[in-house]
Amino acid sequence: MTTDREATTSAQEWNSSRYDKNARFVSDLGSPVFDLLNPQPGERILDLGCGDGALTEKIAGTGASVIGVDSSADMVAAARRRGLDAREVDAFHLDFNGEFDAVFSNAALHWMKRDPDAVTAGVRRALKPGGRFVAEMGGFGNVAAIMVALCATAEKYGVANAEDFIPYFPAPDEYRECLERAGFQVECMALIPRPTPLPTGMQGWLETFAVSFIKSVALEQRSSFLNEVTERLRPVLCDSMDRWTADYVRLRFLARLA
What we know:
- The chain has 258 residues and is α/β, with parallel strands linked by helices.
- Helices cover 38% and strands 24% of the residues.
- It contains 11 helices and 7 strands.
- Strands 3-2-1-4-5-7-6 form a 7-stranded mixed β-sheet, sandwiched between helices.
- The radius of gyration is 18 Å and the shape is globular.
- The model is unreliable at 1-10 (pLDDT under 50).
């Protein structure tokens, strides 16, 4: 559910069918941030990085008026199939002005690596006075073992600067400062370790979330690259019954305009 469309052939890409198969846990585990949003009937809410609209639909079910935005045309199409108002929008250039009571985002802000300040500035513009920004994203240490394995294996396969493909996983103080620069007051923020079972294993996760790394490797080497990354991770993330668990760490917050 990306909103960061980099002008490079190695950018992360999204496929709604693959996402539904391998990553449904992302929206299924979104209840805590949804509860923090606490949407009310009649509120107008923007879902930033809405993906295929699973949580957007849940927000709409409360009686709120919700618009979902995402930069992936395929994800937007999937959200529209749910009957939602979903739009293909670049998060670095949000063009809403004082329209929303709240902006919500789940598992998307870490993909907006290029310019987080532009994103928070756009969120500020989109909100009414006193509006709130409620989100959960990858925080410092998120999928650290997976990122180390990806970078080490990519380097072995001749990829330079593979660390550039790591998403934006800020520490709480770092993102608090980003929010404050945009004019927000942070009401609550927490860094939350959340080991997450992977229903389709590590390769399903990699094929969904590590596309930028995979595309950096020569086409004929991609299968062996995926196998090698998986085997590097097996001792630390796979149990004796072949059940995989990713080392997720989430950053969850509620911030409000003064």
